[in-house]
Amino acid sequence: MTPPPSFPHAFGLAATADGRVAQIGFVGRLYDEVLGLLMEARTYFLQRERSDVVGMPSEARLLVSQETMRITCRLTHAMAWLLTHKAVAAGEYPAAWALADERRLGGQDVCEETYWHDDPNLPPKVRELLTRSLSVYGRISRLDNDIRTPPPRPGSGGLALVR
User: Fold this and answer.
1) Is residue 154 part of a domain?
2) pLDDT, tens digit (0-9, with 9 covering 90-100), for 100-155
3) Three-state SS for 130?
């Protein structure tokens, strides 16, 4: 008899540490959220960013550029991770492929940095995109860690969900 799934395994993650492939619903919803955020960020960068930085000192413009790159980095790493797990759920690759170290969520050194998030020199939309991109990146980071942890065995003291 197989043990009941632990929290992350019960919510449709594509690849789990014990080699199972689960439903894609949860990953699909995250994918839709990240794609929407990517499109929103792209629209802002193309249409409004320039007008928001007009008249700013060069140091402030550089900060805006730095933080918009951070937004892009977070969303790109998040999308790569999600596409990997969608491919596994679709049967294109085995679960072990997605669990390889080189397919872990990357960019932590850049993506988890929050020092400048509340800087008043940043336009409000940039601060909003920073907050939202950090939120989704953080959720995916937790999922990435969770799927590499085997579910607890019954009687081991860990929490387990029962179907």
Assistant:
1) no
2) 999 999 999 999 999 999 999 999 999 999 999 999 999 999 999 988 887 777 77
3) helix
Q: How many domains does the chain have?
A: 1
Q: What is the pTM of this model?
A: 0.79
Q: CA 11 to CA 14: how far, in whole Å?
A: 9
Nearest Cα residue to 71 out of 83, 79, 82: 79
Report yes or no: 34 and 75 within 8 Å, Cβ to Cβ: yes
Q: Which residue, chain included where needed, has tokens 């499109």?
A: 39
Residue 38 sits in a domain whose CATH number is 1.10.8.930
Q: Which residue has the tokens 């940043």?
A: 122
Count, in order, helices (H) and strands (E) of the chain: 7, 0
Q: What one-character DSSP code corresponds to residue 158?
A: S
Query: Is residue 45 within 8 Å of residue 130, measured between CB atoms?
Result: no
Helix runs in 3-94, H state only = 7-10, 25-47, 49-53, 58-89
